[in-house]
Amino acid sequence: MHETMKLVCRECGETSGASEPVWRCTCGGLLDLEFKPQFPKRAVSRREPGMWRYREALPVENDVNIVSFGEGLTPLVKVEFGGRSVLAKLEFLFPTGSFKDRGASVLVSKAKELGIKRVVEDSSGNAGAAIAAYCARAGIACDIYVPESTSPAKLAQIAAYGAKLHRVPGTREDCAHAARRAAGRTYYASHVWNPFFFHGTKTFAFEMVEQLGWEAPDAIVLPVGNGTLLLGTYIGLKELQKAGVIQKLPKLIGVQARNCAPLHEAWNQNADSTHVKRRRSTAAEGIAIAEPVRGDQILEAVRNTGGAFVSVTEAEIRAGLKEAAQAGLLIEPSSATAVAAVRKAALPRGTVIVPLTGHGLKSAK
Ligand SMILES: Cc1ncc(COP(=O)(O)O)c(C=O)c1O
Ligand SMILES: [Zn+2]
């Protein structure tokens, strides 16, 4: 179906076919996935609602391998945040309560297609829950590594799906190192390293553009930690642009928590990559990433769209959470960073999209 699909190393440029169970280059570099998607708009709009309606743009060869719950095509609703009218895309309305299901659906489908029986993943919670749920549906065993400090509701959720949960003391990076050691022996279903995850999160862009009548918005304000939503959105937009579906790219406005904002700090210094930064604790646990593996790629994507970064304080996150809840939208703190950023960022005129990425019940106290 996708004859031209290939994996390309970001370090050495080496290419390989996408039918091998690899998640990084032999040189250790990060891999990107390249192929030529198609968007038969008329046919797409007649299909069942859900992210798999963009079938010709998703890198799974055979339909029998698709692992799905019929998820996606989340509502786009008009709301007012910080006195500004925006369109919120309700990304917490997924089977596991966050947009990470987009990435998990494609990645676990690919793992199934490759005949993989066991995977390893590390996460601050939501990506782990998504991989665990989709592995349960696929009958694939999984080991999920999480920082010891992860919210109790997320730990319970991951364990409930039947995943083997490993709670790692220390930082989010200590947790990633533990998973990578374990992944030496199995398949690393990492939402950060594995390029198939990003080819699931890109469906956020496809849906948004279709819901706007196959037009691009003017800006998207989105929380960023490891950039799975931001880079997925960027990949999706570039694919739509290349295919001639949209002409311009919307500005991507990346939002970080002030207490852990390596990308915003790099941006302010006009740097191409992040440096390990001091980190203080933040309620936005999902985006508390001090060392984003794809940091340079995220900075480049934001730069290419004429976008920017902003960071928000803990008080602003609490205010964003309250503002969303009082508009009837119960979200988690990582998600509320984007709500708070609407009043802080310099936004263009026109259509502004704010994905609400994670369900508030996950962090309810
Ligand atoms: C609720 C929520 N929003 C946003 C993000 C940001 O995603 P990323 O780290 O891929 O940039 C996450 C990541 O875990 C999350 O859990
Ligand atoms: Zn390489």
Structure write-up:
- The chain is of the alpha/beta class and 365 residues long.
- It has helices at residues 41-46, 100-113, 126-138, 152-160, 172-183, 195-201, 203-211, 228-242, 262-268, 295-304, 314-326, 333-342; strands at 6-9, 15-17, 31-34, 76-81, 84-89, 118-122, 141-147, 164-168, 187-188, 219-223, 251-257, 308-312, 352-355.
- Strand 4 (76-81) and strand 5 form a beta hairpin.
- It has a six-stranded mixed β-sheet, with helices on both faces. The chain has a four-stranded parallel β-sheet with strand order 8-7-6-9, sandwiched between helices. The chain has a three-stranded antiparallel β-sheet with strand order 2-1-3.
- The mean pLDDT is 94.
- It binds pyridoxal-5'-phosphate (PLP) and zinc ion (ZN).
- Residues 9, 11-12, 14, 25, 27, 29 line the site of zinc ion (ZN).
Unreliable stretches covering 5 or more consecutive residues:
none
Number of strands: 13
Lateral arrangement of strands in the main beta sheet: 4-5-13-10-11-12
Shape: globular
Query: How would you classify the helix and strand content by structural class?
Result: alpha/beta
pLDDT averaged residue by residue: 94
Specify Rg, calculated over alpha carbons: 19 Å
Discrete helix count: 12
Largest sheet: 6 strands, mixed
Named once each, the bound ligands are: pyridoxal-5'-phosphate, zinc ion
Which series of helices and strands comes N to C? EEEHEEHEHEHEHEHHEHEHHEHHE
User: What separation lies between the terminal Cα atoms?
Assistant: 47 Å
Strand content: 15-25%
Give the fraction of residues assigned to helices: 25-40%
